[in-house]
Amino acid sequence: MITEFRDFIAKGNVMDLAVGIIIGAAFTAIVSSLVADIINPIIGLIIGGADFSNLYYVMSGDVPENAGLQVARDSGAAVFAYGAFITAIINFLIIAFVVFMLVKGVNRIKDRAVQKGQEVASAPTGPTQEELLTDIRDLLATGRTST
Hints:
Layout: H1 2-10, H2 12-47, E1 57-60, H3 69-74, E2 78-80, H4 82-122, H5 129-142
């Protein structure tokens, strides 16, 4: 059973998946930082708010005026955190775009490899071994030599 498990883990697909998950987690941290530290402040500046991800609407309960989202949540009020939701959408769109570009690049590389393979396969080939031997036999039979 342990040998089967080791063989399963050693397969390329499982290792590729593990590497993909690790890189994906690191990439998610980068995208989250990009959105939180660069994009949200720009959007916040445009719409007049200091922190875009802290935008919310109090549906019920008492929240101190100009309190941040975390303070509003900690107070027990029901809040509609549309800024955090929009931030999640921005994160998703950036990650989806980057994944799209990666898949597009990989497909382009695969297409080039297939095209090169087809070019090699369609390249003119020389005479076969049988054709060469037949030509040599015929030349020897006639007593001529090729120069």
